[in-house]
Every structure is written in C-alpha cells, then in structure tokens.
Write a structure and sequence with these properties.
This protein is mainly alpha-helical. The chain folds into four domains: 44 residues; 98 residues, no CATH class; 123 residues, no CATH class; 221 residues, Orthogonal Bundle (MetI-like fold), CATH 1.10.3720. 66% of the residues lie in helices and 1% in strands. The protein is built from 26 helices and two strands. A two-stranded antiparallel sheet has the order 1-2. The longest helix has 43 residues. The protein is elongated, with a radius of gyration of 37 Å.
C-alpha cells in the first residue's frame, strides 16, 4: 500500500488562489498610496526638479551662435585662429548671407548680446553692421538690372526658384485669394544650379510670407541675393541649362556677363561698417563659442574664460565671483553662529518657563513672521544709519562722540545684524521644540550625583539639545546663503551675496546663462557642505522635536 499526497492550493472564499489574491491586494494598496502622494510628487517635479533641470540646461546652452550663423560657423572651421589674421573672403561671404537673415528676423542683436558677455564690443559691432548690411551687394544688383531690367521684377525671381507646383498653386490663389498664400517651395533644379542663391532666396520668400504676410511675387529680393547670384554664376557658368524658356535666356545672359562685372570685397564692406570685423580676436570668440553647448558660463562663474588657446583666468581686476562665493559662505556662517548664540538662551528660557509665560514669549518670537520682510529690513536702515536711532542713543549716553558715529549700514555689519534678526526665529523654534522634550529629571539626577550647574548643563542637557542645534543651523544657513533682498538694501558693496549677482543677471543684464551657472555652483556648494555636515554631525541627529 502506497501513500499518495496531493498538493492543496489555499484559496479564498470565492475560490481564487490565496497567493494571487494577496498579491492583487498588495498592488492595490501600493497604487492607493501612490495616488495619495501623486499631487505632492507632481508639485515637487514642477516647482523644484524642473527649474533645476532648466537651470542646468541654460548654464551650458549656446545654440544661438550656430543657429544664427550656420554658414559662418562652417566656413570658420578652416580658419586658423592662431594665425593672428582675420579670416578670408569666403567667411565674410557666409557672414553676409547669415547676417541678412538674422537682421530681418531681428536675431543679430540677441547674438551680439550673447557674444558681448565673452568679448566687450561685439554687441555694438553687430548692431552697427546690421543697419548697413542691407546695402552690401548693391554693385551686383545695379549691374544685373542694367544688363536686363527683368532682374528688378519680383516675378522673375519667384518663377526662377519656385517649383512648378508652387507657381501653379500661387496663380490659382492669386485669382481668388482666400486664406494664406501657398508656402514657397524652392525647386530642385534651381537649388542644384544656383545653390547659394536658392538658399538665400528661399529664406527671403519664407520671411516675406510668414513675417510680412506678403508675396514673393510682389516683393524685391534682399540686395545680398544679387551678390549670391553672381557668386553662383561664377562657380557654375552653365547654370542656364537647368532652366527653360525666358528664365534660361536670362540666366545665360547673366552668366556670360558675370566674369566682366565690377566686384567689391565683402570683407572690406564689413570692415568699413565696423573696424572690429578685421580683428582676429573677435573672430576667435565667434569660433570658440560656435558649439551648441559650452562651458563658458561656468568658467565665467569661476572667474575664468574660454579662449582659443584654452582656459585662462580673467584679469585680476575682473575676478569677482569666487570672492563673492567666499563672502557668501563666510557671512552665512557668521549669521548662523549669531543666531545660535542669541537663540539658544531664548529657547532655553522658553522651555523652562511655565506654559502661560512661554506662550506669551513665543508670540514675541513669532512676531517678525507677521511683519513684511521689506518693512523689517527698512527698519534696520533707520536704526543703523549714522544719524539713526542706535547711533543717537550711543551719543546720548556718552559711549561715542558725535564725530565718531559708527558706520553700521551699507557694509557687512549691517547685513549680519539685519539677517540675524530676520532669521532668528528659524533657530529658536527647532531649539525650543527639542528642549521641550528634555526631561528636567536628567539635570536633577546629575546634580544629585554631585555635579554643579555648569557640569550638569554641559554634560547632560547640552548633548540632548544638539539635534535642535543641527536643525536650526541647517535652516538658518540654507536660508541665509540664498538671501538677496536684505543684503541688497543694507549691505552696500561689501555686504552683498552671490545671490545678488544672480538676481542682477536675471533682471538687469539678462545674462540668464551666467545666472544659471552661478546658481548651479551655489547649489553644488550647499550640497557639499550638507555632505560634510552629515559626516561630522550626522543627519540622523537632526530633529525638530
């Protein structure tokens, strides 16, 4: 006789496997928990993570150069910036076609502003040239029109470069104009025969249609288009074979006459518009910052600069940011220590007093929260100035003479005093919440064993309050390192923080890239200090009660 056993699967009351039912219940519980925290998660992603990612991107993004000067960037690849000589005519030709498009799109001023961060004077160079670039190539336009008046007609250009499909669609639209004009399309034949002209004229046609709401059939092309046509005809004398009819005849006539045209140096036209276009140093800056991503902003934030020869420190009189970082960290530490020295006795008193008295005193501690930050800071300007209340009182009681009034405003002293007052509650509240949990019996027990008041406090009470010190110090330090309103109002030139420069670049200079780089470095510095704090004190020892 043999024993037979069968595995019995545990099931629920409705007959479903118990294991599967438990797994399903666990998944539902996890989903429910996730849905509960989802709003907070989304809020953090939108308000915290996304801005940080955007800040990191802005600190390295540099697409404006390559997007605004695509032809110039390609032409500069063959130029040796170490030669000390300005690039050749081909680079200036490429710049002409890029710049005319940028001027029409009003992008040249933005480009100049960006490059001016790296080399002073480039902004005015682009603005000044932008006002004259429309006329570069007039000599070629005049000669083509003198050769055949058809070159002055917008229809000539539109039918030469437009596809047959577009021409047909445009004629249909012109007969009964309803809605926008069909988008201009450059024909492949024209693009192969006259590549430079087709590219530039296509940009002109798209601009006319999208920005001016006009038709290429009715608008004369940009003057540099004539220069581009001359360039293409010299490069391809047989360009007429790509066309037919009157267009082929017209192009053939121009190709035959082009070698005898009066020419002008585009390089000389640019230098005549602004002498700085002849500077190899300026061209080196353009080439250096041609990549879509650059370390230039971070280097500037570290008082360095990216040059054609590599990374170099800025001149000594231009190094400001590293010192500002040092000052910010130093003053933040001093403010934190000041808040601790003032806040610890107050928190100790709050914890020791009976509840009815401690609540009253706690209201006084919280009173600054109910007052505008601007009002509190302005009050300190009144109190601290040389003719202010504090100096008047010191003179009145005879501590200082009227001629020796203390300078406590528009310097580091003013910043420390004002910010200590503003941030003091953030130190007191964590200390009070921790001290309130410390039982008085510990101190009494220490005294009963022979310890004096100081020993009982230092050996028994103080170690138990360290978590509150840690929490308060973190709060005050993090808040102070990013403050900019109070230092701006009371700090003068010697009491401002790095955050004031960040605010300046965001609101005044509009150098968002440098502001983002400074903000990123400040964030990294805070994280490093936080890691050091965790190693020394331990984040687990930080408590709020």
């Amino acid at each position: 006789m043999s024993d037979t056993t069968s595995d019995q699967v545990l099931t629920t009351q409705d007959g479903k496997p118990l294991k599967a039912a438990l797994a399903r219940a666990l998944r539902r519980e996890k989903l429910r928990s996730f849905l509960l925290i989802a709003p907070l998660l989304i809020f953090v992603l939108i308000t915290f993570v996304a801005p940080i990612i955007d800040m990191l991107f802005r600190s390295v993004e540099n697409e404006i150069v390559s997007e605004t000067l695509p032809r110039t960037v390609v032409a500069l690849e063959e130029w040796d910036e170490a030669s000390g000589q300005a690039p050749g005519e081909d680079v200036y030709n490429a710049l002409l076609y890029d710049l005319i498009i940028a001027v029409e799109n009003k992008r040249h001023t933005q480009l100049g502003t960006r490059l001016n961060y790296e080399q002073t004077g480039l902004s005015s160079m682009f603005r000044r040239t932008g006002r004259r670039v429309d006329d570069f190539g007039e000599v070629y336009a005049d000669q083509l029109i003198d050769l055949n008046a058809a070159w002055k007609e917008p229809v000539t250009w539109a039918t030469m470069f437009g596809t047959p499909e577009w021409i047909s669609a445009q004629e249909t639209w012109a007969a009964n104009p309803s809605g926008p004009e069909p988008a201009f399309v450059v024909s492949d034949a024209a693009r192969n025969a006259l590549p430079v002209t087709a590219d530039l004229y296509g940009a002109f046609a798209r601009f006319i249609q999208t920005e001016d709401s006009d038709s290429p059939m009715e608008e004369d092309p940009w003057v540099p288009v004539y220069r581009a046509l001359y360039q293409d005809l010299i490069a391809n004398p047989d360009a007429a074979s790509a066309f037919s009819g009157e267009t082929a005849t017209l192009v053939g006539q121009a190709a035959a006459a082009a070698p005898n045209f009066e020419t002008v140096s585009i390089k000389e036209l640019f230098i005549d518009a602004d002498d700085d276009w002849g500077s190899a140093e300026n061209w080196a800056v353009i080439k250096t910052f041609a990549p879509k991503f650059t370390s230039g902003y971070f280097l500037s934030a570290a008082d360095a600069q990216l040059t054609p020869t590599g990374v170099e420190l800025k001149p000594e009189d231009e190094r400001i940011y590293l010192y500002l970082f040092y000052r910010t960290l130093l003053l933040s530490i001093m403010i934190t220590v000041s808040c601790l020295l003032l806040g610890y006795p107050i928190a100790f008193l709050l914890a020791a007093l009976p509840l009815r008295y401690s609540n009253l005193l706690l209201i006084l501690v919280l009173l600054p929260f109910w007052t505008s930050l601007l009002v509190r800071t302005s009050a300190w300007k009144v109190l601290l100035q040389q003719q202010g209340v504090i100096n008047d009182f010191l003179v009145w009681i005879g501590i200082i003479g009227d001629a020796n009034r203390l300078v406590m405003i528009n310097n580091q002293t003013g910043t420390i005093i004002a910010m200590t007052h503003i941030l003091l509650p953030f130190m007191i509240l964590p200390l009070y919440s921790v001290m309130k949990t410390i039982s008085p019996s510990y101190v009494r027990a220490a005294k009963s064993l022979g310890a004096n008041d100081w020993t009982a406090f230092w050996r028994v009470y103080f170690p138990q309050s360290i978590p509150g010190i840690g929490a308060g110090a973190i709060l005050v330090f993090i808040l102070s390192i990013g403050y900019y309103i109070t230092p701006e109002l009371v700090g003068g030139t010697s009491g401002i923080f790095i955050s004031n420069r960040i605010a300046f670049h965001i609101s005044s200079s509009l150098n968002w890239g440098l502001a983002a780089a400074l903000g990123t470095l400040l964030l990294v510095a805070v994280l490093l200090l936080f890691m050091v704090y965790d190693r020394i004190v331990g984040i687990d020892n930080v408590k709020l009660g």
